Amino acid sequence: MTPRKIIIDTDPGQDDAVAILLALASPEEIDVLGITAVAGNVPLALTEKNARIVCELAGKPDTLVFAGCDAPMKRKLVTAEHVHGKTGLDGPQLSAPTMPLQDQHAVDFIIETLRTEPSGTVTLCPIGPLTNIAVAFERAPDIIARVQEIVLMGGAYFEVGNITPTAEFNIYVDPEAAKIVFGAGVPLVVMPLDVTHKALTTKPRIDAFRAMKTPVGDMVAAWTDFFERFDMEKYGSEGAPLHDPCTIAYLIAPHLFAGRHINVEIETESPLTLGMTVADWWRVTDRPANALFIKDIAAEGFFELLATRLARL
Ligand code: RIB
Ligand code: CA
Question: Which atom of ligand 1 is nearest to the CA of 15?
């Protein structure tokens, strides 16, 4: 099977870091053409630095990392240091990266890659706010039809919001960008909180990372130890939801996931419900389906895949 060519658009973030590690540990299925950083969990200067730290941790310093948009399309940036810490990768002590940041802007890299790779062969995996993707689509509408698929982490229906009562963080930070991406007509797979909240880093699962006795295993255990406190306090859950790795796991093992093709619209007007993904799960409207909205995961299988692959690094 030829590996799937992907661009990971990301705002590391501990869970983003695990997603990047999983992708870089899976060359049979995934060919990471580049990693594009966006402002989100923490400002862009940190997300691009964190992306490089993770690539070096994976032993892949030749990975192309690009800095993208430092603010949403129309709004002030909202960050999430309360979840991810000041650096965005709080938990363990980390040294500064030595691998280079690419000079090219992330949006130009996305446009150029989609124009030069054969049409329909590049998948976009946004796991942060959708600013870079939406700006690329606005600046170069010709690339939209050339995207193979978008597999993103964002939104919620049954779980409703995690940053406001009605909105999930990635969508809330840049709802105008999300509206552009969800309305672009590209085949879309959405990993909302409904599924990611079933991928919890319970103690046995974190112990499995630690039992690897590798720098990657120790780092992932330290990140999840730090990252889980927010969700455990808020939801009383027995661990943190590993949101972003669900997108990469879907590319490697789609059988681990189940969902429905439904219509999903983005609220961009109401201050009360700004950034809500209005998911027609019960198909009560005649709005056309535009997304495979994932609701279930085989969590044990997901964590087995994660542990097996991360142990390779
Ligand atoms: O709401 C969860 C999402 O917001 C994840 O992508 C996490 O990294 C943060 O960006
Ligand atoms: Ca993220």
Answer: 8
